[in-house]
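Recall that a protein's primary structure is simply its ordered list of amino acids. Everything else, from secondary elements to tertiary packing, is in principle encoded there. The following example makes that idea concrete.
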Amino acid sequence: MEKRWISDFLGIGYRYTDIIMNILILYNDRKIAIKIWNENIHWWPDDQIILRFVEEKEDYWFILYQKGKNLLSKENVGFFKKNPLTQNYLRFKKNFDQKTILRFALYKSLEKKIENKDVLENNVDDSSTKATFELNIHKRMKTVYDVKFLKLNELEENSLEHSLIKNTDLQNA
């Protein structure tokens, strides 16, 4: 069964407040996130989850998948996305200790209500129209033990990670 790579999620988030740091896959559509979790991630055994961060200049590739096949999953999926190196990622990398908790989260924008009708009618920019964001972390979680931080030039030519990045770069060229 061929692996289907999911890359249309919003991005990656990090949570440091728990005893074990959390990595969050961010979605803006609750139904899609729940469906993907229930049909796939739920069935992944914790000891078979692979998480790779592959750094390339000012970016890193987030690659998450299950080793082998799982007969209970509806599809064989993995997650793959290129992200800019951020302070949150670097903090996660620095403080990572043997395992992490994988969770999904809903990330959505909330527009503050405009109290002054004149502002709306005159299209005047006002500080009362600032966008705020809400993060709802799903309760379900998986523990990921196989986590590695790599450089692009350290990848073996025949590795899954190398071929995935190479094929994506060829498609975007």
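Confidence is low (pLDDT under 50) at residues 113-120. The two ends are 28 Å apart (CA to CA).
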